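Box 3.1 A note on notation
Throughout this textbook, protein chains are presented in two layers. The first layer is the amino acid sequence; the second is a token string describing backbone geometry. Keep the layers aligned when reading.
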Amino acid sequence: MKKKLLCTLCLLIGCIVGLGAHSQALAETPKLVSESACVIDASNGEILYQKHANRALRPASITKQMTALLVLEKVDAGEISLDDKAEVTYDALIAVDPTSTLIGFEEGQKRTIRDLMYCMLVDSANDAANILAEYVGGDLDTFVDMMNARADELGCTHTHFANPNGLDPDDEQIHRCSARDMALISYELSKHSDYYTFAGAKQYALEVDDVVTEPWEIWTKVDMLLPASEYYNKELIAGKTGWTHLAHHTFVAYMERGDRSLIVVVMNSMDPGAKYSDTEKLVDYCCDNYTPLTLTPADYSDSLTAAIESAGLEINLDTGELPDLPIVLPSDLSADDITYSVAMEEDGETPVLTLGLKEEAWDTYKAATHMQGEAAVLSRTVLPVKTGLFAAAQSSARSLQKTVSAGSGSAVATVLPMDTLRLLIITVLAAVLVLFSVLFLILRAVRRKRKKAQDRSGLTVVIKTPEKYQNDEKK
């Protein structure tokens, strides 16, 4: 009886402890005001947290993230310059609600791309967004097509843009974007350093021209950037806010804490301050519950080789150029939970390494990120390959090795170690070089003999007779 009572008591204590631990785990999950949210690690694009991240919502002015991306891609490609001047057109101005946020540009006025980028990202000016769109796309409709095409390329699945500024269109079904898609767009935008100059600025003085006759300062709409604001946070290095009556508050934040860089997207927040508090909660959550790892080539080279063999691929890897791989995992997981797979891109020439998670680790990852659906892809990395004679020789050697191995039974049906393979290739190349050298010397010797023989056949031989024989002939 005492044993039964003791067992029951232990069971009850275990349940209480378990419930307490479960409650503590739930308390760690951020409680957000915003309807939708997504967090991406800025070092590698890995998604760390999602809340209804695939809901297609009204983005409001964070639409300008895509407009900025298309402009800066043209700048970095050298197709346009920040010093170029765009002319303000009637079409650009008439397409903007006059009661919305505007600088008040006039038709025929010319402003630099730099000026317009500050106006769009600092002041959130809708007329500036339209002027930039016309300059890059030729007209607004073409630019909107470019926006949607780029979204498709980035893997956005719940996005359709109707304009470059984010104002709600007449048809409520046209202009939509999900938090996850906006995070993908913002991650791509983070690769352009000029973006931080514009979106991280607290204020900007417009250049003086015929219309702006005196220096005119515009101030950021992002209160989190302003030291005098109650929402100020020094960890924010750049950001873009959005608001319309239908979209409510939206926000994209680029946050840095120590050596961690995060991109946070929140959408449909009813409270103007909640977009900032939600952002801070998400940064706390991701920094407290995730551990950054860096996998060096030495850490993953064996797994990479096994993945290439498993895929049945022949890749001339440039092992000296393999990159370090930054990964962020929930604290309960480690590098041992990572899976490696290799596949070729559609061009058939570009090998890509994909890092994922083992099946048993997926539940832990899903609990931390709130991700739904298929197993997570942590990162995708293009692998470096060798080109030229050495690569061709290496490929031939590998083909020969596979042929020999296939016909020699399971005892030798293994891939040679890379060092042995290199030594074999170098030996073959050295033998070929020696052979060519010998052939060259032989051909050279043959040519010299032929030349000497030709010289001899062309000689005229003159024999001088002794004097006494000459006298005898005279007599």
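Residues 1-27, 389-394, 396-416 have pLDDT under 50 and may be disordered. The longest helix spans residues 418-457.
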